């Protein structure tokens, strides 16, 4: 039972780390999209990211 508890704790920590990494990546993508949209001659500026 102790081993199972330790495993669950490790999985929880791993899941939290993954969530934080994905959240940070999402913020970076949003920031990049905003910067790209600011360029007049950028063909990507007309594209909208569906949230």
Automatic annotation (TrEMBL):
Domain of life where this protein originates: Eukaryota
Protein name: Uncharacterized protein
